[in-house]
Amino acid sequence: MPDLGADAIHGGRNGRELLALQENERLRLARALHDGAAQALTGLLIELRLLEEDASDAGEVRRRARRIREMTADVATDLRNLAAGLRPGMLDLLGLRETLARQCDMLARETGLVIGYDSSGLGESRLDQVLEISLYRIVVEAVSHVARHGADRLDVLLERRSDRIIAVVRSYGEAMASSAPATTAQVPPAFESIRERAVLLGGTLIVESEPGRCTTIITTLPYADSNSAGR
């Protein structure tokens, strides 16, 4: 006879983890909108008010108009990046390997970081949709976080090992390396949403630090090859 109490506890735990993940996604989205588009739009309103006050000075009008155009372009870029983070259209069209390659190239151009990317270990076949979007979000979140915290160089590695998919993001730079090693049970708060996403998919997250050298974020997710099913 099944243990209904244990099933209820397990289901409740999974439900709480799912709700926590959803709330973390909403929080991330809210912060991105507040720190990016909302502040930029406030700056645009200020520039427009100053433009009205300086309408009699043609040179100043041109300068402020140029500034407003640049700020508007920045807002458009931020919103496109935010939309891509929610559901990148390229992922459906090009697949995980090429989409992440383009994201890494774009981040390298924007930040000046040296980013190494190797997904050859995934093979040529596509993963299922849930696994692709989950890996995409995990890698993008990890890369974006370490890029904001003073990394000098990043390496991104994706590979398939039998019944597992492993995603590794390694950052080099003292700003990311903590003072003590972190284990699975001691995932830093910044990576909690990644851990929750991995756990919901039956996977794990390990964050390893070498003080003063590098931080390595290792996500392992289960993988069932549909081509080998039933063999």
Structural class: alpha+beta
Number of strands: 5
Instruction: Work out the helix count.
Output: 6
Low-confidence stretches: 1-12, 175-185
Order of helices and strands: HHHHEHEEHEE
User: What's the arrangement of strands in the largest beta sheet?
Assistant: 1-2-3-5-4
Overall residue-averaged pLDDT value:
76
Tell me, what's the shape? Answer: elongated
Helix fraction, binned, reads 55-70%
Q: Using only CA atoms, what is the Rg?
A: 22 Å
Please give the alpha-carbon distance between the first and last residues: 31 Å
* Largest sheet: number of strands, sense, barrel closure: 5 strands, mixed
How big a fraction of the residues is strand? 15-25%
What does this structure look like?
This protein is α+β, with helices and mostly antiparallel strands. The protein has helices spanning 4-53, 58-86, 89-94, 96-111, 129-148, 192-200, and strands spanning 114-121, 153-161, 164-172, 204-210, 214-222. A five-stranded mixed β-sheet has the order 1-2-3-5-4. Helix 1 (4-53) runs antiparallel to helix 2 and helix 1 crosses helix 6. Mean pLDDT is 76; it is low at 1-12 and 175-185.
